[in-house]
From TrEMBL:
It comes from Flexivirga oryzae. Gene3D superfamilies: Cytochrome P450. Keywords: Heme, Iron, Metal-binding, Monooxygenase, Oxidoreductase. This is Cytochrome P450. GO terms for molecular function: cholest-4-en-3-one 26-monooxygenase activity; heme binding; iron ion binding; steroid hydroxylase activity. It comes from the Bacteria.
C-alpha cells in the first residue's frame, strides 16, 4: 500500500472508529446511554441488555445523549426510520476540518455502509437503485429459491454426524446462507469458500469503534472482495446464468442504470446483509429453542407455526441490535424537536420489546399474534430488501434441522460473536440425534432379528 493510501486509511479509522470509540468510552464512564450500550453490547446478550434498554425507555420516547437522541420506543423508531427529514449514515459538516479530511480520505473501494450502498444513499439515488434491484429480488424470485434451499439444507445435514459433538454454526448456520447467497450471486463452487471467508472478515464493518487491527482486516477483506467482484461481473456478462445477479447485471447493462461501482456495492450488500444476518437468525433460533423446549415441542406438534416462529425469533433476539440516523434538517420525532446534524440511535431490539405493542414482551412465544410487527428489518425506504429471503432461509433452515434430528442438545462452550451491531453466536457446540422417524420401524427390526 502506498504511503498516501496508508495515511488515508489511518484518517478513515480515526474519523470512523478511533474518535467515535473514544467518545463512546468516555460517555460510558459518565453513564451516557449510548456509551453504555456500545460498551455492553460487546459482551452481553440481547436479553442481558434489557435492564439498560429499560432505563432508556423510562426516559421517554426519545432520550437524550451527548450527540443527539436514542430511542427504544416502537413508534419513535418507526417514525425515525421512515422520516424524510433524517438520513442514513453520518456526514461531517461541509467546511469543517473533519469534513475536509473525510472527503480527502474517502474510500474508493467496496464498503457496505458507504455510498453507493443502498444502506447509505438517499433519494433520488436510493429510489433508482431500489427500483432496479426490486425488479430482480422479488418475493416470487425468492420463493423459487425455496426448493434449492431445502436441497442445500438436506445436503449439509447429511454431513453432520449423529451422537458426536459438532459446532452447529460452523457446520450448518454459516454454510447454509453462504450457499444460498452464492446461488443468488452466481458464485462458482470453487469460489464459495472465499466468499464465506470474506463475508466473515467483513462482518464488523457495521460496527462502530473498531480497533485498528480489526479495521485493517475488514478493509483488506473488502478490497479482496472488490477485486474478486470485478472479475466475477465480467464473467457474468460473458456467461450469464439463471441466477438473480446475472439478471441484475443484464438489466443494468441494457438500461445503463447501475455502473460498475454500484453493482459491486449491491453485491457487497447482498453478501453482508444476506449472509451475516441469516447466520445470526439461525444461531439465535437454535439457542432460543434450546432454552424454550416447550416452544420446540409445539413446533414439532404444529409445524404450520414455523413462519410465525421465525418472526418471533427476529423480534426476541434480532440479528441487528441498532442502527443510526442523522437529521438532515430541523424536525420533530414523536413531537420531540431534533436539530439538524443531531444523531438518532434507534435500538431495534428495544422497539421489539415495547410493552405498548407486544403483550408480555420479554416472553418468547411462537404463538404471538403480532410477532411480525417487529422492526428487525428496519422501516421506511430502507426496509430490508432481503426480508423475504431471510424469512424463507430461517424457516427452511431451522425446520429441516429439527425434522432431521429429534435431539439437538447444546453443549457448554458457546460463545457470542465479538460484533456489537450484528448479534449472534460465534459457535454453538451441540450433540444431535436422529429423529424417531429416521430410525427403522419396530417391525423391521423384529424381522431382521
Amino acid at each position: 500500500m502506498r504511503p498516501t493510501d496508508q495515511m488515508k486509511r489511518g484518517v478513515r479509522w480515526g474519523l470512523g472508529h478511533g474518535l467515535p470509540g473514544r467518545l463512546m468510552r468516555v460517555a460510558a464512564r459518565r453513564g451516557d446511554f449510548q456509551g453504555r450500550i456500545t460498551s455492553d453490547a460487546e459482551h452481553l446478550s440481547t436479553q442481558e441488555l434489557m435492564p439498560l434498554l429499560g432505563e432508556i425507555r423510562d426516559q421517554g420516547p426519545l432520550a437524550r445523549w451527548r450527540l443527539g437522541h436514542i430511542t427504544v420506543d416502537h413508534e419513535a423508531v418507526r417514525e425515525t426510520l421512515s422520516s424524510n427529514d433524517v438520513h442514513a449514515g453520518f456526514v461531517f459538516e461541509d467546511g469543517t476540518v473533519l469534513g475536509r479530511l473525510g472527503r480527502w480520505a474517502k474510500r474508493d473501494g467496496l464498503n457496505p455502509v458507504e455510498a453507493p450502498s443502498l444502506l447509505a444513499v438517499e433519494p433520488p439515488d436510493h429510489t433508482r437503485y431500489r427500483k432496479l434491484v426490486t425488479r430482480v429480488f422479488t418475493a416470487r424470485a425468492v420463493e423459487k429459491l425455496r426448493g434449492r434451499t431445502e436441497e442445500i439444507a438436506a445436503d449439509l445435514l447429511d454431513r453432520i454426524p449423529a451422537d458426536r459433538p459438532v459446532d452447529l454454526v460452523e457446520a450448518y448456520c454459516a454454510k447454509l446462507p453462504v450457499e444460498v447467497i452464492a446461488e443468488i450471486l452466481g458464485v462458482p463452487a470453487e469460489d464459495r469458500g472465499l466468499v464465506l471467508r470474506l463475508g466473515t472478515l467483513a462482518a464488523p464493518s457495521l460496527d462502530m469503534g473498531l480497533r485498528w487491527r480489526r479495521f485493517r482486516e475488514v478493509e483488506d477483506a473488502l478490497d479482496e472482495f472488490d477485486a474478486w467482484l470485478g472479475g466475477h461481473l465480467n464473467h457474468l456478462r460473458e456467461h450469464p446464468g439463471d441466477d438473480l445477479f446475472s439478471q441484475l447485471v443484464r438489466v443494468s447493462d441494457d438500461e445503463a442504470q447501475l455502473n460498475e461501482r454500484e453493482l459491486k456495492a449491491t453485491a457487497g450488500l447482498v453478501l453482508a446483509a444476506g449472509f451475516e444476518t441469516t447466520v445470526n437468525l439461525l444461531g439465535n433460533g437454535i439457542r432460543l429453542l434450546d432454552e424454550h423446549p416447550d416452544q420446540l415441542q409445539l413446533l414439532r406438534d404444529e409445524p404450520d407455526r414455523w413462519p410465525n416462529a421465525i418472526d418471533e425469533v427476529l423480534r426476541y433476539d434480532p440479528p441487528v441490535l441498532l442502527t443510526g440516523r442523522q437529521a438532515g434538517r430541523d424536525t420533530e420525532i414523536v413531537g420531540t424537536p431534533v436539530k439538524q446534524g443531531e444523531l438518532i440511535v434507534t435500538v431495534l431490539a428495544g422497539a421489539n420489546r415495547d410493552p405498548k405493542i407486544f403483550d408480555d414482551p420479554h416472553r418468547f412465544d411462537i404463538r404471538r399474534e403480532n410477532a411480525r410487527d417487529h422492526l428487525s428489518f428496519s422501516a421506511g425506504r430502507h426496509y430490508c430488501l432481503g426480508s423475504a429471503l431471510a424469512r424463507m432461509e430461517g424457516e427452511v433452515g431451522l425446520r429441516a434441522l429439527y425434522d432431521r434430528f429429534g435431539v439437538v442438545d447444546l453443549l457448554p462452550g458457546a460463545k457470542r460473536r465479538p460484533t456489537r451491531v450484528l448479534r449472534g453466536w460465534d459457535n454453538l457446540p451441540a450433540r444431535v440425534g436422529l429423529a424417531a422417524a429416521s430410525s427403522p420401524a419396530p417391525e423391521t427390526v423384529s424381522a431382521a432379528s
